[in-house]
Specification:
The relative contact order is 0.11. The protein has two domains: 100 residues, P-loop containing nucleotide triphosphate hydrolases (Rossmann fold, 3-Layer(aba) Sandwich), CATH 3.40.50.300; 75 residues, Helicase, Ruva Protein, domain 3 (Orthogonal Bundle), CATH 1.10.8. A three-stranded parallel beta sheet has the order 1-4-7. It is built from eight helices and nine strands.
C-alpha cells in the first residue's frame, strides 16, 4: 500500500531522475502496481483536485499510464493499483461527472453513533494502555451531546493520544481522568 496525502505534488506522479544515483525513480502509481494506492485528504493538496484527477482520467479508464523517461522516451506502463480517494469534502466539489463515473465505488463513512463512539474510545484506550476513571467515558459522550459537536470516528484516537501525551509529560499515571479529558477537549476543540 502506498499512501499520499496533502504532501502530494504532480511531479510525484511522473518518472523523476535522481541525478546523484543516475536512476529514474518510479512515480507513486507505479510503486503501488498490483497493490493499493491511497490518496488521502483529496482536495487538500497544493494543486487543485481537477489537476490530479485529469492526470489520471485515462489511466483509470484504460488501465495504462503514459510516462516519459528522463531522456524523453515515452513509456506505456500498466496502471493497475486499486486506487482509493479519501476526503471529507463533497465529491461534486472535487470532480465533474465524467471523472466520478471512472470511480465505480463510492462509500460514505457516516459519523459514529454514541454506542460506536464509546466502543472506539474503549478500543483506543486499550491500544494506548490507558484506564478510564469511573464516569469519564459517559462524561465524554455528554460533552459531545451538550456542545453539539458532531462525533467523528477520529476523535477517540486524537483525544486519547493527547491524554496519553499529557499524562506522560506531567509524570502521571496513564489514566483518563475528568481533569485530563477536560483539558484535552478544551485544547482540541478550540472555541
Amino acid at each position: 500500500t502506498v499512501i499520499a496525502g496533502g504532501e502530494l505534488r504532480m511531479e510525484m506522479l511522473e518518472l523523476t531522475l535522481n541525478e546523484h544515483l543516475g536512476l529514474a525513480e518510479a512515480p507513486l502509481q507505479l510503486k503501488a502496481a498490483g497493490g493499493t494506492l491511497v490518496i488521502d485528504d483529496l482536495g487538500r493538496q497544493v494543486m487543485p483536485p481537477a489537476t490530479l484527477l485529469n492526470r489520471w482520467i485515462v489511466p483509470l479508464d484504460r488501465g495504462v499510464d503514459h510516462l516519459t523517461l528522463p531522456d524523453g522516451t515515452p513509456l506505456v506502463v500498466p496502471f493497475d493499483p486499486f486506487v482509493v480517494f479519501s476526503t471529507n469534502l463533497d465529491p461534486k466539489d472535487l470532480a465533474d461527472e465524467a471523472f466520478l463515473r471512472r470511480i465505480p465505488y463510492k462509500l460514505a463513512i457516516d459519523d459514529p453513533d454514541p454506542d460506536t463512539f464509546a466502543e472506539l474510545l474503549t478500543l483506543e484506550a486499550r491500544r494506548l494502555k490507558l484506564k478510564f476513571e469511573d464516569g469519564v467515558e459517559d462524561g465524554i459522550l455528554a460533552w459531545f451531546a451538550d456542545s453539539g459537536t458532531p462525533m467523528r470516528a477520529c476523535h477517540p484516537r486524537d483525544i486519547l493520544r493527547q491524554v496519553e501525551a499529557r499524562q506522560r509529560f506531567l509524570g502521571r499515571e496513564p489514566v483518563v481522568s475528568q481533569t485530563a479529558i477536560t483539558d484535552v477537549l478544551r485544547s482540541y476543540f478550540v472555541a
